[in-house]
Amino acid sequence: MNQSELVEKAMYEHTDLLFRIAYYYVKDKHLAEDLVQDVFLKLYCSNYREQGELRAYLSKLTANASKDYLKSWAYRKVQLTMKLMPKEKMVHKDALVEREELSVLDAAILSLPLKQRETIVYYYLEGLSIKEIAELLNRPESTVKSRLKSAKEQLKLKLRKEEWEVLLHD
Questions:
Q1: Helix or strand run (H / E) with residue 84
Q2: Quick check: 143 pLDDT over 90?
Q3: Is the pTM of this model over 0.70?
Q4: What is the mean pLDDT of residues 8-20?
């Protein structure tokens, strides 16, 4: 399989996963799309040979690209601009986020600190085991477990006042 076929297959199979990973790091749909596109460009330009699972490799690339962006001057500049903008310009986004229960849940996840957010996303949304998450993040399993427990407690506190009409009544 040549490089372009590999990238095409990877895009078909892993785009949704990589987008969710990037989105939960950077909290911006368009930026997450750009980061995923950059990951596929890196894959295309590299001489990747199947040494392990492609999904894990792409997930790690996406997480690293997202973390690099969060450390960049461009991100800090955007954050500063957002603080200086009046809140009225952002109200329409809040109204869209709060319309459905899944949006409320997403907002609660996004409000978690990065370390807890990434463990929640990998464990519940991506279905990875604690051992897989520990390998992906290069952390001990006990650290992943404690971050997961802390994240669940924070989510429970944030979401306990919500009236769930659909999610709890399947």
A1: helix 73-84
A2: yes
A3: no
A4: 90
pLDDT at site 166: 41
Angle at which helices 130-137 and 141-159 pack, to 10 degrees? Answer: 110
Mean predicted confidence (pLDDT) in 22-47: 89
Cα–Cα distances in angstroms (integers) from residue 39 to residues 17, 26, 44, 94, in the given order = 12, 15, 9, 30
**How long, in residues, is the chain?**
170
Q: Are the beta carbons of 134 and 144 closer than 8 angstroms?
A: yes
* Two tokens, residue 130: 């604690």
37-46 long-range CB contacts below 8 Å, 24 or more apart?
Answer: 38/65, 39/65, 40/7, 40/10, 40/11, 43/6, 43/7, 43/10, 44/3, 44/4, 44/7
Measured distance CA(26)–CA(129) in Å, rounded: 23
HEC states along 5-29?
HHHHHHHHHHHHHHHHHHHHHHCCH
Q: Assess whether pLDDT exceeds 50 at residue 93.
A: no
